[in-house]
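Proteins fold reproducibly. Next comes a concrete instance:

***
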Amino acid sequence: MTARVIVADDQAVVREGIVMLLGLLPGIEVVGAAKDGEEAVALVGELAPDVVLMDLRMPRCDGVEATRRIRERYPATQIVVLTTYADDDSLFPALRAGARGYLTKDAGGDEIVRAVQDVMAGDAGLAPAVQRRLLERVSAVAPVPARESPPDGLTARETEVLSLVAEGFSNKEIAGRLHIGAATVKTHINNIFAKAGVRDRAQAVRYAYQHGLIRPPGTNVT
């Protein structure tokens, strides 16, 4: 399936370079380009793309605010941040605004294609360094002791799926490990989000650690 993509970046040379690169990649069709967040939101309303590759620091309307508006108004469109910055002040506001992917501009073509495909499949499209930072941040939150029964009415299977999500597995990988269909995994994840009161995988990972459903890396079990 070809992904219809909009590129949003305020630097013309960078924007044109990204558009040129994407034009060479399989499975991606660039349908528009925006020079700031305001234009990105307007283009999404006009063109209904599958994915927006969103820079963060842009005039008039920055990438975080543009992401928030797009996700509120056009929830079928996914956002993959493509930026120079991977610091906490850039990363976490973007994820809270609704971005499902986060790459830095040193990402290669294969990594961009993979992130676009992942977010279209309902997974997170995160650079390895971003995944590590998320785990470090989540691991810093002290979890409650492991529970004998799942919280918030989660079933045993939903708890198992959530644990695998927290370990970084995609829907397809979870389906393979549990020998169930990808559609079934997606149903379980939707149920988990509803019961846990979370809206994305990053929040679900945090929830899993906070409720003792998975232990942070390096934690010894006594």
Notes: The chain has ten helices and six strands. Residues 218-222 have pLDDT under 50 and may be disordered.
